[in-house]
């Protein structure tokens, strides 16, 4: 999804008493002692993938709130909502009386996270860098916060086995389709370049993002630029397609006419969190996208 996330620092909470404070202040961060924290009892989850992890690890009874991207499983839709994870309100979050808030570095604004910390709420942040290791970090974070570390390690072992199987299947594919993730609403179509979740998914699934090395993030592209990129197919989310009015409306965009994808009407749409969430369903999402990329360009 289009984003220009501002990195927020990882929380560094250190209990210092008396003269120990002076000594600790001179030590580099990794050497400072940290107190053991008891498992959280009231968690707010900011991000669909982290919320999925909470459910997969059987810790949903600890959830007191989630953000609006937390739509899976269906039960998550019934949790109290704190708004979009990039546009949070300290007042709304604190009204749920959480003792821990979990999110990615995309959560913010940063001032709100600092207000939560100032109120004594533990704020646990994981870096979202669109790698397979991101999934591991999310699983272990939720396991630690929820007091389910053993379950998180077991989950990671299962997910990694699935991931390796999927990667072997992708590596054996006969071709690498050229795929562009395109959000088409008002104005020029927004295309996913390098450093985006969509770019990573295309590569994981055995495709080539022809604009992946041309720019970072999302940019609008002209008809000429899209024609030069020569995508074999376009990739979108089911939510984006519904908002646009379906496939017929998508193909009415004049910027698409000169592309190979337009000539074959090659379009793949998948649910946004499943496709781009980088959660426990990522191995399945990559396997599904891989098959659909090949089918759409057969």
UniProtKB/TrEMBL annotation:
It comes from the Bacteria. This is Iron complex transport system substrate-binding protein. Residues 42-298 form the Fe/B12 periplasmic-binding domain.
């Amino acid at each position: 999804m289009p984003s220009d996330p501002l990195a927020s620092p990882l929380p560094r909470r250190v209990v210092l008493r008396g003269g120990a404070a002076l000594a600790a202040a001179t030590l580099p961060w990794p050497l400072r002692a940290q107190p053991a924290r008891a498992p959280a009892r009231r968690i707010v989850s900011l991000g669909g993938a982290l919320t999925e992890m909470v459910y997969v690890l059987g810790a949903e009874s600890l959830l007191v709130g989630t953000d609006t991207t937390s739509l899976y499983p269906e039960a998550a839709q019934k949790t109290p909502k704190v708004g979009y994870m990039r546009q949070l309100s300290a007042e709304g979050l604190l009204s749920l009386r959480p003792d821990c808030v979990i999110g990615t570095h995309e959560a913010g604004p940063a001032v709100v996270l600092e207000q939560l910390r100032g109120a004594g709420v533990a704020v646990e942040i994981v870096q979202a860098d669109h790698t397979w290791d991101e999934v591991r970090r999310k699983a272990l974070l939720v396991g630690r916060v929820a007091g389910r570390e053993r379950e998180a390690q077991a989950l990671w072992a299962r997910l990694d086995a699935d991931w390796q199987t999927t990667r072997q299947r992708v590596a054996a594919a006969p071709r690498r389709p050229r795929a562009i993730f395109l959000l088409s609403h008002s104005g020029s179509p927004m295309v996913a370049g390098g450093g985006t979740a969509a770019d990573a998914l295309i590569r994981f699934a055995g495709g080539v993002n022809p604009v992946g090395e041309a720019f970072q993030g999302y940019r609008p592209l002209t008809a000429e630029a899209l024609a030069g990129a020569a995508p074999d197919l376009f990739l979108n989310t089911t939510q984006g397609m519904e908002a646009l009015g379906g496939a017929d409306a998508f193909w009415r965009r004049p910027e698409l006419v000169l592309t190979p994808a337009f000539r074959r009407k090659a379009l793949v749409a998948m649910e946004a969190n499943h496709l781009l969430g980088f959660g426990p369903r990522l191995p399945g999402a990559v396997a599904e996208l891989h098959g659909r990329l090949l089918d759409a360009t057969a």
